[in-house]
Amino acid sequence: xxxxxxxxxxxxxxxxxxxxxxxxxxxxxxxxxxxxxxxxxxxxxxxxxxxxxxxxxxxxxxxxxxxxxxxxxxxxxxxxxxxxxxxxxxxxxxxxxxxxxxxxxxxxxxxxxxxxxxxxxxxxxxxxxxxxxxxxxxxxxxxxxxxxxxxxxxxxxxxxxxxxxxxxxxxxxxxxxxxxxxxxxxxxxxxxxxxxxxxxxxxxxxxxxxxxxxxxxxxxxxxxxxxxxxxxxxxxxxxxxxxxxxxxxxxxxxxxxxxxxxxxxxxxxxxxxxxxxxxxxxxxxxxxxxxxxxxxxxxxxxxxxxxxxxxxxxxxxxxxxxxxxxxxxxxxxxxxxxxxxxxxxxxxxxxxxxxxxxxxxxxxxxxxxxxxxxxxxxxxxxxxxxxxxxxxxxxxxxxxxxxxxxxxxxxxxxxxxxxxxxxxxxxxxxxxxxxxxxxxxxxxxxxxxxxxxxxxxxxxxxxxxx
Length: 466
Hints:
There is one protein chain. This protein is α+β, with helices and mostly antiparallel strands. It is built from 15 helices and 16 strands. The protein has helices at 67-84, 95-102, 111-120, 157-165, 172-178, 182-196, 208-215, 222-239, 259-263, 328-333, 337-340, 369-372, 422-434, 436-443, 450-456; strands spanning 23-27, 44-48, 51-56, 88-90, 122-127, 133-134, 152-154, 167-171, 204-207, 243-247, 251-256, 364-367, 377-381, 390-394, 405-408, 414-417. A 5-stranded antiparallel beta sheet has the order 12-13-14-15-16. Helix 6 crosses helix 8 and helix 7 (208-215) crosses helix 8 (222-239). The radius of gyration is 27 Å and the shape is elongated. The model is unreliable at 1-21 and 262-356 (pLDDT under 50).
């Protein structure tokens, strides 16, 4: 990205979209807060940190711009002005041409009206103690009531100068992947702005209260906001391979992803989530002596660690088991545990961390928490032609049949025996659905090495995501 073009070097009709993968530039004032989500009426203002953004409608009876088109429009305007070093930003000869510049469907029906509201609005920003600055040159604002298409817009010289001083770079590909979600665009811009101000490797943490002030709406309570913001973070998480995101009850932590994050599963962006539970980078290897077999359920076995190694949480009460929401009818018709459970197999165990040999030679394996991102340990085994795919879950590395939960994978994830709290069940179910192909292939004997398993396994969403 270049910001040193002299004015007039590129004629408005000669400006083209930069190559895929190039950065897009946005003013920092638009990155630290959620802009209007919907086209509401009346003036709007929000402050976050040192930045304040105000938007007034172009006329009393006109709504404000909002949603993803507001964000994509501002992004195009800021980026083009910096690339061309020209306050006059082309918008295309018609809505279809403008849609192409914004990277959206050329037939988008909302674009003409949303762009009209954007250009007619009086948008001002203030950074720190600096005076308030208008984004658009007042002389270029359309006259009240005008609906004619405008092929360009002029920025104020003060805003262009402020843009140069407060620019945040966003990845074009990530923006394109998130273009259908205003909330995800806001979350991504916040992440990029926050990390751009910190040294490499630094962790940025924000509390839920602070995030709600920056990105929430008046109608959202704390739980509703957290659910919505976690959904937005999940979209960012899936689209951007360069960030690591952790979510817990205190808030959200972000950092630049390290090479270790990618090594776990290079082809799967979802492996970059970190659990909120503090754990060592890898669970300690288990002793070699096998213990008991799962009775009447999943024929997976393990080795018992010493008491110092056992960090299993307390077993949940018997009343905790539940099935996945809306699956009651399926669960009612599912085979009984006795029908689903295979005959116990001889005690056998292999660890994915074993350095001695890469080949998986036994039928049963356990997946430690640093591989799955779960607070529990997952147990997989070969099915040997059995129809119902089963997965075992224990609260810790020590195998204890009394604390084993067995989940049936088909047709939906259903608890066959044992018990998980609702939130635990949701996270484990989400992990199973993310790794369904892996589970099926191992069940059918299609995975023969730990290298293949480690390459394909995907970590669970961070705690609280649903």
